[in-house]
Every structure is written in structure tokens, then in C-alpha cells.
């Protein structure tokens, strides 16, 4: 049963007040899934679904800022998405470009693109490559915007960088094989220098990671939500945070 608006607002307020700052995740990753299915429900175009999803991202980042979430990583465009029909992909690229411009204009967060940026159309690649410097001094969450991103490709790119660095030092590959460590890979990921995600959320009811932050999520907590991304509400986010706060994290121990 859907609660009347006043009761719903009261419930949301009480839920928010029940969260303790020391139980909140420092880094939240979200697979923003369900835009196309949302559009089909309303007989709208796929582009309309992606537009609604983009506006939900803006809203979500405001929630994160209010809750002092330090780092947010949003899976927006995967390497597999780049294989979609050209008409849909062209519209999606334009929507992502508009989203990045809006985030920059509204100074909502510091933005860092993560992904194989060379795989992006040149105009979007140039735009996101410039965004980190122009938003570097903005207060609020640090946003990793995952575009042209694939978890396997990220690990491959990290290993390639390790090999190149080894070569540039004049060391042998044989020596590298003896000394290669987890830290060597972590230090060369797209998210290098950042804490691993504490909580990963996926909307739309799907219960898989689809290659998102494969290395970094080794000890992350997962939360799967039935809501399609454009329908994801602040109360859904608060429920995810409440659920996270009840978990006992063991980190393999």
C-alpha cells in the first residue's frame, strides 16, 4: 500500500535520522540500471529513459552531498554499451555530455572520469578529460563517472602499466613475475589512490555486477534494489544505507 504523502515524508525523515554518521559508507558505487525498461513502461523512447536517468543522477548526488558521502562511483557507460545500435548510442552520448555539463555548471561535485577513454567518441572524450581539472576545487562528493568502463579492461590496463614501468626501470619481466603484488595492481587502477567501495547498489532487480569495479569490490557489501533507476527514491537510498549499517564486515577474516 502506498503511504499518503505526509506519512511517507515522516517515514523518510525518521529513516534518515536513524542513520548514524559513523555507520555510513565512505564510498558508494551504483550501477544505474533500468532506464530502457522504465521508458518502455510508459511507451516512451529509449532516449527519454536515459534522460530521466541522467536527472536522477543529479538528484542522487545531492542526497550524497547531504549525507556527506565522500566518494561516489556511477556506472554510466560500459564498453559493452558502446556496441549498441548507433542511433541509441548517439543519443546516449549526447545525454551523458549534457549531464557532465550540468554537473559542472551546478558545481555539485569533483568529477573524475574512469574508463578506457580512448574508446569514447572524440568529443565526449575531450570533454571528460578536461572535467577533472575544472571541478578540482568543488566541495562535496568526489564523483567517479565510469564511461567506456569495463572491469576486465581496467585490470588489463593496470597490468600493462606495471609491465611498462618495469621496462622503463630496466628491470626484467622475470623479476616482475617474482615480485608482482596486489598493491602493484591497485596502484594502477583507474581509481588509484581512492578507498575501495564500501557499498555497491544495483537498481532494476538484476543481481550481478556486470564487470563493475571487479578488483575494488572484493570486500564490498552489495545491495540490490527492485526499483528501476529513474524511479529510485531517496527513501530507497536510505534503506540501502540502513541495510549496510546492520552488516558486520569481516574483510575475509
From TrEMBL:
Cofactor note: Binds 2 magnesium ions per subunit.
Cofactor(s) essential for the protein: Mg(2+)
Taxonomic lineage from the root: Bacteria, Bacillati, Actinomycetota, Actinomycetes, Micrococcales
The protein's assembly and partners: Homodimer.
Name this protein carries in UniProt: Isoprenyl transferase
HAMAP family attached to this UniProt entry: ISPT
Residue numbers binding Mg(2+): 33, 221
Pfam families: Prenyltransf (PF01255)
GO molecular function: transferase activity
Family the UniProt entry places it in: Belongs to the UPP synthase family. Z-FPP synthase subfamily.
Enzyme's top EC category: transferase
Known function: Catalyzes the condensation of isopentenyl diphosphate (IPP) with allylic pyrophosphates generating different type of terpenoids.
